[in-house]
Design goal:
The complex is a heterodimer. Chain A has one helix and two strands. By secondary structure, chain A is an alpha+beta fold. Chain B has a single domain, classed as 2-Layer Sandwich (HIT family, subunit A). In chain B, a hairpin with a 3-residue loop joins strand 8 and strand 9. The chains are: A alpha+beta, B alpha+beta. At the A-B interface, strand 1 and strand 2 of A face strand 3, helix 1 and helix 4 of B.
Amino acid sequence: MNENGSDKEREEMHRREITLPDGRYMIFYTFGDEDELREEKNDQREDV
Amino acid sequence: MSELRYNPLLGEWLATATHRQDRTFLPPADFCPLCPTKPGKFPTEVPEPDYDIVAFENRFPSLKRNPDPPAIESDAIYKVEPSLGVCEVVLYSPNHNTSLAAEPVERIHKLVRVWRDRFEALEHHDFVKYIFIFENKGEAVGVTLHHPHGQIYAYPFVPPVVAKELIQTEKYFNENRRCLLCDVVEKEIDFEKRIVASNDSFAAYIPFFARYPFEVHIATRGHLQSLTDFSDRDERDLASILKQVLVGFDRLFDRSFPYIMAIHQRPSDGGNYDHYHFHIEFYPPMRTAEKLKYLAGSEAGAGMFINDTLPETTAERLRGLIEPVEWK
């Protein structure tokens, strides 16, 4: 823990863009390791 | 119906957007259109059961990428243009009952990176001349949806407030060969009494010329023009100082503090703006726990603000409520 987080590794930023039915774009931003994020999402789906 | 109309008296454009009369107005929390769509629940504007940060085109935009032609034709006095541009909404969190102030600094850091990404992406449109990132928070400033979110407008012209700042900063630069805001920041840091927070990359202060009692400006200490000039350190330091100021705001009257947050950056029209300087301006309408600052005759009709407080006094009060930020 420090004052400005400079000791933390910069998380990778990911974008996933979809097109809504009326043609507008929507971009989902996620941060961190992509494989871990995918696993997290799968776990959430199983929970549902 | 939506179009840009020119005000020849002031030399400014405004947008008509009649469809915005029908936009969702203060819905109950169970029917928030900006929450994720939960299985078996009503479909919101976000067709996913969860998200981190989302940016999307506004469903009720005042500017569009493919606008309809104006309903009337321009003439010598009344100029009309299609309402060309982009209006985006940025959702800060899937949690309906939070605010930027209540979120950890790590999430604010993510948001700063998203702002930068949207700025870079929108600059690619030839028709975009200025990108304005802002937040309206609280019913006192006219919010219609309480879900924590901000907005981004990509204008086909440089809007008047920034245009005026550009004229002033260029004039100062030509006369002094120095950046006006670099000198303002240096002066505020030396004076100390209007500073509310600072770190290696930013200074937050209630300016000498504040129009609102708790009008805070956050400016880079280095001479930077836009988010695209930021280092990783600058992004983290911006997140830190935003967290400090926002928490301080909430502590002022022990409530979620309403404000307008305006991020002022250089235009995106390809011009040289070396004389300009990145800064964020907060316009909070509250002057006491019970009283709001309204734009009345002198402010709205003549453009001269009357501030019932002294920045040196309000800065001391806000500074006393600000604490260091801890990153996990």
